[in-house]
Structure formats: structure tokens, C-alpha cells
Design a protein that fits this description.
The chain has about 190 residues and is an all-alpha fold. Helix content is about 75%, strand content about 0%. The chain has helices at about 5-55, 60-65, 75-95, 110-135, 150-155, 160-165, 165-190. The radius of gyration is 18 Å and the shape is globular.
Length: about 190
């Protein structure tokens, strides 16, 4: 068996883990994770931009980071954004003081389909945001220069290209699906 480790394979595995996890946590918590992802994306971007403008400018701080094999300020900012992004998702999903409660008066097949759809959208959202952060781009600052390291990923992976080129679509679709489901769920209850 000739198994080649590629960026596409890595993205597919990560994607599969997110979709499988969406079935474990259920539709309501899946929607909670999606909302936490939106908050986490902007929070991490802001923290990373502040971090990039202050701490990584210090020679002593960069010497400390080199102990952890982080050699450039850009790598430090990307790592900070990814760590903060994942931390916020976990904290808001587990400890967030809000609940999402979707009416359950639908058939089991429809509930399963909705969970699959939201799991798919959640995976696209999380992975595309992570790839945008890895590229060095910023939602808030508006910078879009891709790092040379990311260019290798981008050129080697069709999935990475699709997720990054269409990140606006992946950013919009979960919110649109959530809004659509909320409107139609409201009609079912009346």
C-alpha cells in the first residue's frame, strides 16, 4: 500500500474529524461551535495583530521563541492566531454562557441530515479560517499577502486552494444555513 502524506489528505482527515465530532456533540452543540468559531476568528485575528505589532518586535522575546523553533515574527503571529482561535472555540463551546436550542419536532432523518450539513459547514469554516491565518492574511487588518511557506501548501493542495479561494463563501454559508433553519423552524412551531 502506497500512502502518500499530502496536504489534501491532512485536510480530509481533519475535515472528517470535525464532521464526526459534530455527530457526537449533536446539532445544538454543533451550532454553538459554529457561533464560537465566528467569535474566535475575529478575536484571534485581533489578538494576533496586536501581538504582531508589539511582542514580536522585541529581540528578547524572539530569542525566547527560537527555543520553541519559531524563527520569524510571522511564524509567531500565525501560531498565536491558531492557538487563540482554537482556545476560544473550546472555551465558548464548553463554558460559554449561551445555549442553542433548536426545535426537535422533525423526523430523525431530517435531524440527521441537518447535523451532517452543519458538521460539513463547520468543518469548512474552521479549516478555511485556519488556512487564512496560516497564509498570514487578516480579516481585520485587511492584509492578504501569502507567506512563502503557505504558497507551497496552496500549490500542492486542491482542497486548500478551494477553501482559501472561497473563504467568503465558507464564512457566509453556516450563518445563512443557521438563519434559514431558524426562519423555517419558527414557521413549523406556529
Amino acid at each position: 500500500m502506497d500512502l502518500r502524506l499530502t496536504w489534501d489528505l491532512f485536510i480530509i482527515v481533519f475535515f472528517g474529524i470535525i464532521v464526526a465530532y459534530s455527530f457526537i456533540i449533536g446539532r445544538n452543540n454543533n451550532l454553538k461551535v459554529i457561533l464560537a468559531t465566528y467569535v474566535g476568528a475575529f478575536f484571534a485575528d485581533a489578538v494576533g495583530n496586536i501581538f504582531g505589532g508589539t511582542l514580536v518586535q522585541s529581540d528578547n522575546f524572539m530569542k525566547l521563541l527560537r527555543l520553541f523553533y519559531i524563527s520569524t515574527p510571522e511564524q509567531a503571529v500565525v501560531l498565536m492566531k491558531i492557538l487563540v482561535f482554537m482556545t476560544i472555540i473550546v472555551l465558548l463551546s464548553v463554558k460559554g454562557s449561551f445555549n442553542v436550542d433548536v426545535a426537535s419536532n422533525r423526523s430523525a432523518g431530517l435531524r440527521l441530515s441537518l447535523n451532517l450539513i452543519f458538521g460539513f459547514l463547520n468543518a469548512c469554516l474552521i479549516i478555511s479560517i485556519a488556512l487564512i491565518f496560516i497564509s498570514g492574511a487578516s480579516f481585520i487588518g485587511g492584509s492578504s499577502a501569502a507567506s512563502p511557506a503557505f504558497q507551497d501548501i496552496y500549490n500542492q493542495s486542491n482542497l486548500a486552494k478551494t477553501l482559501v479561494n472561497n473563504y467568503s463563501v465558507w464564512f457566509m454559508l453556516p450563518a445563512f444555513a443557521f438563519l434559514s433553519m431558524s426562519v423555517f423552524a419558527g414557521k413549523d412551531e406556529n
